[in-house]
Design goal:
Elements lengths: L1 H13 L1 E4 L2 E3 L2 H7 L2 E4 L1 E16 L5 E5 L4 E6 L6 E2 L4 E6 L1 H32 L5 H28 L3 H10 L5 E5 L4 E6 L6 E2 L4 E6 L5 E7 L11 E4 L5 E11 L5 E8 L11 E18 L4 E3 L2 E7 L3 E12 L3 E6 L8 E5 L1 H12 L3
Antiparallel strand pairs: 1-2, 2-20, 3-22, 4-13, 4-17, 5-12, 6-8, 6-11, 7-10, 8-9, 10-12, 13-16, 14-15, 14-17, 15-16, 17-21, 18-19, 19-20, 20-21
């Protein structure tokens, strides 16, 4: 208490007034007051607010793998958390219905070949004038009907889950199999397993849930009174990490229970450290459209609702009004007059004594 009083008396007795916004100090007075000087640093981004968020998977990147034929699960190859490649076999299903589809397919292929042979023969006979054009047209229509049946049988097997290589093998070797391979539709990660070995499944019963995690979203809950400051393309940074993203959607409805608005951000790059369903805290950051600077909170003085900064000059300090546009834990983001420039010297410690001298000499208090 005594030390503070002595410092204040020293300042008021020795500092001289140049104007209402100028504090006159000699270098020795500056040292005695314990004022610390640092250079002003410019920034490009303005932190707006902190908010809770949840890591989610884009709907287009998530798939349910199911069986297109009823049958018995004979084998499962992957478990929750496993990484899989596209077309990798995930499970084997024994399905009697698959035998019937394969038999129909082979029958349709045989009939199409016979129809093709007949079609070629009749086309030759037509050119030689042996058969009428009407008979050739009937034969032609008959051939195209068998082609349609063969294509239908092939598509039914593809829907059932048989790959092109399986179909080629069936056509070549003509060997029926009741075993159906369930393959992954994408490269991704197994999120959930719904089937078990030995279980009988109905048609379209789900077996796995799989997702591509190369791109993730953040669903952010913004207080509805703060949403007006946020724009699409504003940046988002996960607190305590280097992970960032960009706001892509601002919701149009307010949650009646929390009075927040759901806002979506797309995470910029693949982030192996993040997990779907993870709760995180994020900071929303806006790109600055004017010169913006970062300063320790202790460097800012308040008077009658206005924030000020003490700028070092040859006579002592110039008191400059500023506008605080964002806050972090220990720093503030500010804009101000043309007097604010990068690398100018400002007081970042001892501002209490400087403020006391300024208000006393300026007659504000």
């Amino acid at each position: 208490m005594k030390k503070t009083l002595l410092v204040f008396l020293f300042l008021t007795c020795t500092a001289t007034k140049a104007s209402d916004n100028q504090i006159m100090l000699t270098p020795s007075q500056l040292n005695n007051l314990g004022v610390k000087i640092d250079k002003l640093k410019s920034v490009q981004d303005i932190p707006l607010l902190y908010a809770p968020a949840k890591v989610v998977i884009p709907p287009s990147q998530e798939y349910i793998v199911s069986t297109a034929q009823a049958g018995l699960v004979s084998k499962l190859y992957v478990a929750i958390g496993d990484k899989v490649e596209k077309d990798q076999i995930l499970a084997l299903i024994k399905s009697p219905e698959l035998l019937s589809l394969q038999r129909q397919y082979l029958k349709a292929q045989n009939e199409k070949k016979l129809a093709w042979t007949s079609y070629q023969r009749n086309e030759k006979l037509l050119k030689e004038g042996i058969i009428s054009n009407r008979r050739w047209q009937e034969n032609r229509n008959n051939y195209f009907a068998f082609v349609a049946e063969a294509n239908e049988a092939k598509q039914l097997l593809e829907i059932a889950g048989m790959s092109s290589s399986d179909l080629k093998k069936l056509t070549t070797h003509r060997k029926l199999s009741s075993e159906l391979s369930i393959r992954s539709p994408i490269k991704g990660v197994i999120l959930n397993r719904m089937g078990t070995a030995g279980e009988r499944l109905d048609v379209l019963a789900p077996i796995y849930r799989i997702a591509n995690l190369d791109q993730l979203w953040l669903e952010i809950n913004i207080p509805q009174e703060r949403i007006g400051k946020i724009l699409i393309t504003d940046k988002v940074k996960i607190d305590g990490t280097d992970v960032s993203g960009t706001i892509s959607l601002i919701g149009q409805s307010v949650n009646s229970q929390t009075q927040t608005i759901l806002t979506r951000a797309i995470i910029s790059d693949k982030q192996p450290s993040l997990r779907a369903g993870q709760n995180v805290n994020v900071q929303i950051i806006k790109a600055s459209t004017q010169p913006t600077f970062v300063i320790p909170n202790a460097a800012i003085a308040q008077s009658e609702g206005q924030a000020y900064l003490f700028i070092r000059n040859d006579q002592g300090f110039k008191v400059s009004p500023i506008n605080v546009v964002g806050k972090q834990k220990h720093h503030s983001i500010l804009t101000g007059t043309d007097a604010l420039k990068e690398n100018i010297e400002v007081a970042i410690r001892g501002t209490v004594a400087l403020k006391a001298s300024w208000l006393d000499l300026g007659g504000d208090e």
